[in-house]
Specification:
This protein has 339 residues and is α/β, with parallel strands linked by helices. The chain is 41% helix and 17% strand. The protein binds nicotinamide-adenine-dinucleotide and UDP-4-deoxy-4-formamido-beta-L-arabinopyranose (WQD). Residues 7, 9-13, 31-36, 58-60, 80-84, 99, 103, 122, 124, 176, 178-179 line the site of nicotinamide-adenine-dinucleotide (NAD).
Length: 339
């Protein structure tokens, strides 16, 4: 069986490619390398002993996307290609709508032309907005506060409309919580450009000496230690969830959303302590003001994914910290060749 991964050279896509190849699937990675490195492909081969097909192209280039389906017999698509920075999306909304929503339309048109009707989509917990009770279930009301989140919600709606129009169309909408960690080999991991926005890459950059100290965004939230609480999950667990989602898409029509998280909340200070434990490196930090748009606490109810996909996160917070550190330590400059 052959799976097309758009955005397959990225952080999450590369880990999914490893799990799929190890499970016996064939993979085609389609990526513009806008936020990833070509060396990922060779590293995936070193881990799995199998070379994924790689096509360099833009998801909004209709001819390039169509030609992938003409040259490969694709059974299911995992659509990860897109832009993902919340602050950047507020500054450049049109770029986000063009890439994330336009890209989804280009992909769906090419899928329709090729008769491919199964897709797994990288959605996000960010679609839940700010007013829901925790833990978030798939029934928690959606409502986004930034353009990035709205692109995810719009793509979910487009996929629901496709499923409503075609009784054989299958869309699995995976709402990721906070993926961190890296492959235990230390060969692939998260490699953000410039100063990271997100907590774990910031911590690992401090640990490696590239940044001086962490600023904790807010120490006065109504949480157990005053810092923000999130549901962090290991990227390898997340990748395995996609293998289950592909199986599910092969056997079920319709559009269905699933939360992928651990179901456990971890505060910023708990994360700092867990990282120090796993790495033996002290992380200097200061408590700063709250970051605009952040909410105090949320985590997932993942029981639906357990029942329907047969998936549950297995790896611990210590595993996540150990593997993030192993990746950063072995690759202090990330892949080193990002444009
Ligand atoms: P990433 O940036 O590492 O991966 C995205 C990949 O898409 C990159 O390799 C990039 O080069 C590629 N890409 C970007 N624009 C493209 C275009 N126009 N055409 C072709 N390829 C293009 O990010 P990631 O963390 O691996 O995220 C993958 C997906 O998961 C994204 O859709 C993201 O929105 C979603 N997601 C990520 C998180 C997270 O915290 N990392 C959480 C929820 C959802
Ligand atoms: C986690 C916690 C921060 C950095 C984002 C996107 C979301 C999804 C995942 C794609 C919060 C605190 C962070 C720092 C800090 N991505 N923090 N100092 O905001 O939960 O989610 O990534 O879909 O859409 O919004 O993740 O890692 O940025 O923050 O104190 O330098 O760490 O305030 O409490 P977030 P994050």
């Amino acid at each position: 069986m052959s799976i097309l991964l758009t955005g397959g050279a990225g952080y999450i896509g590369s880990h999914i490619a490893v799990e799929l190849l190890e499970a016996g699937f064939d993979t085609v990675l389609f990526d513009s390398l806008a936020n990833s490195s070509r060396s990922v492909v060779e590293r995936i081969e070193r881990i799995t002993g199998r070379a994924p097909e790689f096509v360099c192209g833009d998801i909004n280039d209709a001819a390039a996307v169509r030609s992938v389906f003409e040259r490969h017999d694709i059974d299911c698509v995992i659509h990860l290609a897109g832009l993902k920075s919340v602050p950047e999306s507020a500054a450049k909304p049109m770029e986000y709508y063009r890439c994330n929503v336009g890209g989804m339309l280009t992909l769906l048109e090419a899928m329709a032309a090729a008769g491919v009707r199964r897709i797994v989509f990288s959605s996000s917990a960010t679609v839940y907005g700010t007013s829901g009770e925790i833990p978030y279930t798939e029934e928690t009301p959606t409502g986004c506060t930034n353009p990035y989140g709205r692109t995810k919600l719009m793509c979910e709606e487009i996929l629901r409309d496709c499923a409503a129009a075609d009784g054989e169309f299958s869309a699995v909408l995976l709402r990721y919580f906070n993926p961190i960690g890296a492959h235990p080999s230390g060969l692939i991991g998260e490699d953000p450009r410039g100063v990271p926005n997100n907590l774990m890459p910031y911590i690992t950059r401090v640990a490696v000496g590239a940044l001086e100290k962490l600023t904790v965004f807010g120490g006065d939230y109504p949480t157990r230690d005053g810092t923000g609480v999130r549901d962090y999950l290991h990227v390898v667990d997340l990748a395995r969830g996609h293998v289950r989602a592909v199986d599910y898409a092969m056997g079920h029509a319709g559009a269905r959303a699933f939360n992928l998280g651990t179901g456990k909340g971890v505060s910023v200070l708990e994360m700092v302590r867990a990282f120090e434990r796993a790495s033996g490196v002290k992380i200097p930090y200061v408590i700063g003001p709250r970051r605009a748009g952040d909410i105090a606490e949320y985590y997932a109810d993942c029981s639906l994914a357990g029942r329907e996909l047969g998936w549950k996160a297995e790896l611990t917070l210590d595993d996540m910290c150990r593997d993030s550190w192993n990746w950063q330590k072995r690759n202090p400059d990330g892949y080193g060749d990002k444009a």
